[in-house]
Amino acid sequence: MSNVMTKLIKKIKQIKVTPKLVLKVFFFLFLFFLYHLGEYGNTWAGSSRGGMWKIGQSALPYATLPGVFTSLCTFILIAWVVFFRKFGFYFSITILTLRFIRLSVNIVHHNLMVLPGIFMSVVALVSVILIYQSNEQTIKTQKKHRKELEEFTKSIIGAFTNCIDGKDAYTNGHSYRVALYTTMLANKLGVTDQATLDKYYNIGLLHDIGKISIPDAILTKPGKLTAEEFDNIKSHAQEGYKILKDVKIQEDIAAGAHYHHERYDGTGYPDGLIGKDIPQVARIIAVADAFDAMSSTRSYRKKMPLDSIAKEIEQYSGTQFDPEVANAFLSLYEEGAFDNLRDKNED
Asked: What pTM value is reported for the model?
């Protein structure tokens, strides 16, 4: 029993008060009020035998009102199930059980006037159960389709990533590492929503997709690039954007490819954006990309020691890199998050 209470208290503490939660609570209480109003109307109409409710020139017998109020209560029970799912279902079942017990007591006392109420309660119970099952089955099917779509998206992104990294033996695995570092940095910056972290990971995977359009001879050239070759390399940002801009399956999927070479001081490419005008995910990828580039051996230079990389990122904080992202990287570095790379970097 104590374990159950502990888990319950832990779950209550995890509840975050948001406008959406406040709105849901208000709606629940509103339905609760309407339900009891309907129950009161039902009782009142049932006790007013033979009376007539005048509406303009017409009159409605009170005897017909219990059915109206009971139907209203049933609709409210169904609304609880639809909008609050499992909680609403169990809440509705509890109310119907209490109503059934109350009506059964009247039957015991030979009050046969409650028989229509018992019948309506049974109808309401069946309706609530059927709608709950149908609603849950629909949600289950939607989740299955969403998961299948996510798996398909992952496989397509993975195939593109393998094509990108496969163009250069020196950068094989680069996109996966950048994606990993991107999520680590984003989490350090306070991004905790898993859906956002997953999105950032996918954007990180595809940040270099524009390199598919760059000739292998330029990508793997061991010596210094000519001005024309460097311009060709720089075009991968714009080319990546062109490839991804019409992909609607995930929001901002082209942001990393388009802006990861923008600099915080506005001297980057392709658009020369400054500071916070650069999308957050691109500012994060810029640090992750630079870190992986410096910690890996390339065709034109050897990898750098981890301590030197940290000094480099610190030095260019505020010019090349967003200071907040650079500080997040340095915090991770000081915490030892990259220590598994130290031995490899210092071989």
From this structure: 0.67
